[in-house]
From TrEMBL:
<dbReference type="InterPro" id="IPR041347">
    <property type="entry name" value="MftR_C"/>
</dbReference>
<dbReference type="InterPro" id="IPR050109">
    <property type="entry name" value="HTH-type_TetR-like_transc_reg"/>
</dbReference>
<keyword id="KW-0804">Transcription</keyword>
<keyword id="KW-0238">DNA-binding</keyword>
<protein>
    <submittedName>
        <fullName>TetR/AcrR family transcriptional regulator</fullName>
    </submittedName>
</protein>
<feature type="domain" description="HTH tetR-type">
    <location>
        <begin position="22"/>
        <end position="62"/>
    </location>
</feature>
<keyword id="KW-0805">Transcription regulation</keyword>
<dbReference type="Pfam" id="PF00440">
    <property type="entry name" value="TetR_N"/>
</dbReference>
<dbReference type="Pfam" id="PF17754">
    <property type="entry name" value="TetR_C_14"/>
</dbReference>
<dbReference type="InterPro" id="IPR009057">
    <property type="entry name" value="Homeodomain-like_sf"/>
</dbReference>
<dbReference type="InterPro" id="IPR001647">
    <property type="entry name" value="HTH_TetR"/>
</dbReference>
<feature type="domain" description="MftR C-terminal">
    <location>
        <begin position="86"/>
        <end position="194"/>
    </location>
</feature>
């Protein structure tokens, strides 16, 4: 049974978006994404429907809440890399850094990964959601390889995003044992080693 997130009486001044996402994910795991209403989400999270709608335009926005912070971590890691460091190593390290090591997130990650990979509405929004992550990486690649066509940078960044997602799905399907960031690192090492 899904328990509501505890809150003080009255209107919250700051919405704990991670708590909302955790409550929503538990509910979606139990009942399914398509059959869960905004009122169901309000009951599960302890946040009014009106407040939820003020912060999230769609239910998909709740489901994808972790991608923007991951993009921020990727951006910071790339910005902090030495300009003369090998590109492949910087990219791999930055992508691994973009994967959260927060134990609370790891606990929810397998259910989240199953949800976003199986729910048609979420799968349809995935390309737009991941675009800032891809553009961040493509921008770095273009700066480091200015003679390469911009389309090549975007294609390589898209391939890295697909490999990262595949590693996360494989980690979840294998029982979510160990650190998912390490699973991503192994996948990207393999990709580097086997790319001509």
């Amino acid at each position: 049974m899904t328990r509501p997130v505890s809150r003080r009486p009255g209107r919250p001044s700051v919405l704990d978006s991670r708590a909302v996402a955790a409550g929503a994910l538990r509910l979606w795991t139990e009942r399914g994404f398509a059959t869960t209403s905004w009122q169901d989400l309000a009951d599960a999270t302890g946040i009014s429907t009106r407040t939820l709608l003020r912060h999230f335009a769609t239910r998909s926005d709740i489901a994808w809440i972790g991608v923007a912070p991951a993009t921020g971590r990727l951006r910071e890691a790339l910005a902090g890399a030495a300009e003369d460091a090998p590109v492949a190593g910087v990219v791999r390290a930055a992508i691994v850094e973009s994967v959260s090591r927060d134990p609370r997130i790891h606990e929810l990650a397998p259910d989240w990964l199953r949800l976003i990979s199986s729910e048609p509405e979420l799968a349809a929004t995935a390309p737009a959601v991941y675009q800032p992550w891809i553009e961040t990486l493509a921008g770095y690649l273009s700066r480091r390889r200015p003679t390469a066509p911009a389309a090549i940078g975007r294609a390589i960044a898209t391939a890295y995003q697909a490999a990262t997602f595949a590693a996360l799905i494989e980690w979840a399907e294998a029982g979510a044992v160990g650190d998912c960031a390490e699973s991503v690192d192994r996948m990207l090492c393999w990709l580097e080693t086997h790319t001509p």
